Amino acid sequence: MKNYIRLLLLLASANFYAHNLDNCGLDNNPALTDDEAAFLNAWFGEDENDGFDFKGKKVLIVNGADGLKFESKADYFKDIKQRLEQTGMPVASTPIPLTEMEKIQSGGYDAVITHWVDEPMTKEKKRNIIGRLAAGFWGSLS
To answer: What is the pLDDT of residues 55-108, one digit of tens each?
Structure first.
């Protein structure tokens, strides 16, 4: 029931999201702009992000069936825009805030956002992502 209410509210506010999305994903810098942070805070809401505030944060977006493929910020927001325009439905996306230690190990990332990931984000998978960042596997993501 809770998800149905969230879906109804999302559909009712699609115009709000579309307006805010115009200024989102204009670059691939992992540091979020104020517009991107405001959109993600509204998009995920307090229930899903456990009070995590995206303002001033640096995020890594991953996708693919196993969640181990890097996705650019521009592509992420482009997909959200297209999905909302075409169907009005949300994309499968989940924020995963990092602990202070994980933030240090990852090179300053505050959160991982999954996008169309089939498998749940396990502790092992999160460690793998942080290890890839620490090893420079993804190089410079900005």
So the answer is: 999 999 999 888 889 999 999 999 999 988 898 888 889 999 999 999 999 999
**How far, rounded to the nearest angstrom, does the alpha carbon of residue 140 sit from its chain's CA centroid?**
18
Instruction: Give the 3-state DSSP-derived string for 22-78, with helices as H, strands as E and coil as C.
Output: CCCCCCCCCECCHHHHHHHHHHHHHHHHCCCCCCCCEEEEEECCCCCEEECHHHHHH
Token code pair at residue 49: 């992000």
How do beta strands 93-97 and 111-115 pair?
Answer: antiparallel
Q: Of 80, 74, 78, whose CA–CA distance to 42 is shortest?
A: 80
> With the C-alpha atoms ordered 31, 33, 38, 44, is the resulting torsion angle positive or negative?
negative
Degrees, nearest 5: CA angle 104-60-64:
130
d(CA 14, CA 34): 19
3-state secondary structure of 140: coil
The span from the CA of 18 to the CA of 26, in Å, is: 14
Q: Are 102 and 92 in contact (CB under 8 A)?
A: no
pTM for this one?
0.80
Tokens found for residue 11: 């559909």
